[in-house]
Specification:
The structure is a homodimer of 203-residue chains. Chain A has eight helices and six strands; from the N terminus they run H-H-H-E-E-H-E-H-E-H-E-H-E-H. Chain A is α/β, with parallel strands linked by helices and 203 residues long. Chain A has two domains: 6-54, RecR Domain 1 (Helicase, Ruva Protein, domain 3); 75-172, Dna Topoisomerase Vi A Subunit, Chain: A, domain 2. The first copy, chain A, has a four-stranded parallel β-sheet with strand order 4-3-5-6. A two-stranded antiparallel ribbon of chain A has the order 1-2. In chain A, a hairpin with a 6-residue loop joins strand 1 and strand 2 (64-65). In chain A, helix 1 (6-15) crosses helix 2 (23-35). At the A-B interface, helix 1, helix 2, helix 3, strand 2 and helix 5 of A face helix 1, helix 2, helix 3, strand 2 and helix 5 of B.
């Protein structure tokens, strides 16, 4: 498209770099921003740059954090021997949202995926092992909250091998049919595995 | 949602102000930006702020412009007595894209819409009349390229009343079935009107 304004063109190009935003949407967003209050757009622009510029990864768990050690790791009321291993920041948010976990986290930064060229050395695995070996007298529980995919299972398997001589028990989050879901719509693999992994009924 | 990082939270809130972007999408966009190169995100943020801060409206036609007078109005090779009246910047872009118009533009900034509380005084109508009265010896043609809606038609009617004593001929862009469209999918109104407004076939 031909833009009569270089300023609009640059803004459209910037917005079009966002995932899922094409040139047409980017133009719509740019023209929306042109119509907004100057202070509002300044705030918009600053919030994004400030986040990128100042964001840290927690020194302990690698979670995104405003400080050297994140809020969760700094919270002394949480069980320090329970570590939930997740792929990303989003998973931490999702689990925190449930209110069902009161331990700490460890963000791997992905899963092992030969197809995407991600090996164990690119993930935050060494620091996880360090966290455990640093306190040899403690009995840790690692809760693997990793996506139930081939890559996820490979990652859990790899971790379990690496951790087998340490004072650690490993669990994975339960897999099965979703609550509120209808059985007929569950995929075969999930349904099949949830039969194999059936649990005694408690009255 | 609970964010462990105020920086991320602020960026998500900023991104969620964009039209069509909810909190979930905003989080996805924010995390995408966290993963990008620092210089890239700085460029992103600056392009948007620079546009909002420096953009001007052309003194003559009200089109978005980087300069006091826009490229189109400054182009002396264009026919200065043909003025295409449009609602917005996007329409100028769309018409320029066709390459079929070689006159100037006038951007109204919307259409008359009592429902949305937009009256003629909020649109750039006075300046359009000024453009024409300033050169009483010229014969102008105004091409109304306004959306074929009730509001659009009202606006054209209002303009024609205001301009009736001036040296101006008024035309509207042709309305009818789209090229390449199938008749059975055209809406009744368009199809009906395109029969009423049928034109002699030229061999």
């Amino acid at each position: 498209m031909g833009y009569s304004s270089k300023l609009v063109e640059s803004a459209v190009e910037a917005l079009a770099m966002l995932p899922g935003v094409g040139k047409k949407t980017a133009l719509r967003l740019a023209l929306f921003l042109v119509d907004q209050d100057e202070t509002k757009v300044r705030g918009f622009s600053e919030a994004i740059w400030k986040m990128r510029n100042e964001i840290l990864h927690c020194r302990i768990c690698h979670n995104l954090s405003d400080t050297d050690v994140c809020q969760v790791c700094a919270d002394q009321s949480r069980k320090r021997q329970e570590i939930c291993v997740v792929e990303s920041f989003k998973d931490v948010m999702a689990i925190e949202e449930t209110g069902q976990f009161n331990g700490l986290y460890h963000v791997l930064g992905g899963v092992i995926s030969p197809i995407e060229g991600i090996g164990p050395e690119q993930l935050n695995i060494t620091s996880l092992i360090d966290r455990i070996t640093k306190e040899p007298d403690e009995q840790f529980e690692l809760v693997m909250a990793i996506s139930p995919t081939i890559e996820g299972d490979t990652t859990i398997f790899y971790l379990s091998k690496q951790l087998k001589d340490l004072n650690v028990t490993i669990s994975t989050i339960a897999r099965g049919v979703s609550f509120g879901g209808e059985l007929e719509y569950a995929d075969e693999l999930t349904l099949g595995r949830s039969i194999i992994a059936r649990i005694p009924y408690e009255k």
